[in-house]
Design a protein that fits this description.
alpha/beta, about 270 residues, about 40% helix, binds zinc ion, TIM Barrel, 10 helices, 8-stranded parallel sheet
């Protein structure tokens, strides 16, 4: 007796978007963009949003997007930069944001992590930078990719004062209460490899609390590789590990989550469907 052909796995995820990675930083760590993107595609990650810090990285990332159809760019200003952009830099950022592949302002936000001897900037400087970036996003009519590290209340306060046309809370790092605060405002919550870490209790509760339509996944590559790759270089091709865990936590098929997050990220950033 011959076996019937195996049922195709209806839960196997379709194409998914990495809503947040750093292709230029990944290249510096030895994985060139063309290779990273080919490996991503082979893993079902057809499109990525790459993050550019400042004018120079913005221009280089847009050049990359022109060469690779699956690449879209967010351009921002490092939250812990020593100063907000000056008028000339703001004008240059505004011009870059007119590029059709520039889909958002980011990452921008507040970072209150204070590593001993590490890079940081006073709260007032960080807030001034964030306000300049929110004004820039509003003028450009673009959504904002938000970096919030140990600064939930302050970040929400700034976003409430200058409501953007769209927000994704990148590398979501709160619990269900922060999910509720974000959902009330229509903010997308994007989960990174941190959700796969063993001590991610609150974060896992948060994954379950995100309403349909506001969920996204990301790698933040080359940082924050998901388990079992933790501590190594991350890349967009590793997104399925995070997607699988997010799906399991929500009791959904990976394919359901892939479709839903893809639709959410397309809508937020105004990406053309595949
Ligand atoms: Zn990032």
């Amino acid at each position: 007796m011959t076996r019937p052909p195996a049922e195709p796995d209806r839960c196997a995820p379709g194409p998914v978007i990495d809503s947040h990675c750093h292709l230029l930083a990944l290249a510096e760590q030895g994985l060139p963009p063309a290779q990273a993107l080919a490996r991503a595609r082979a893993a079902g990650v057809e499109r990525v949003v790459t993050i550019a810090d400042g004018v120079g990285e913005g221009a280089r990332s847009l050049a990359l997007a022109e060469r690779h159809p699956g690449v879209f760019v967010a351009i921002g200003w490092e939250p812990r930069a020593p100063a907000p952009p000056d008028d000339q830099q703001l004008a240059a950022l505004a011009e870059l944001l007119q590029h059709p592949r520039a889909v958002a302002v980011g990452e921008v936000g507040l970072d209150y992590h204070r590593p001993p001897g590490g890079r940081t900037a006073p709260d007032a400087t960080q807030r001034a930078t964030l306000r300049a970036m929110l004004d820039l996003a509003r003028t450009a009519g673009k959504p904002v990719v938000v970096h919030d590290r140990l600064a939930h209340d302050a970040v929400l306060e700034e976003l409430d004062a200058r409501p953007p046309v769209g927000v994704v809370m990148h590398c979501f790092s709160g619990g269900p209460a922060l999910v509720r605060a974000c959902a009330e405002r229509g903010f997308v919550c994007s989960f990174a490899g941190t959700v796969t870490f063993r001590n991610a209790g609150e974060l896992r509760l948060a994954v379950r609390a995100v309403p349909a339509g506001l969920l996204a996944v990301e790698t933040d590559a080359p940082f924050l590789a998901p388990e079992p790759h933790r501590g190594r270089r991350n890349e967009p091709a590793l997104l399925p590990a995070t997607l699988a865990l997010v799906a399991a936590l929500r009791g959904e098929c990976p394919d359901t989550v892939a479709r839903a997050t893809t639709a959410t990220v397309e809508a937020l950033f105004g990406l053309p469907p595949l």
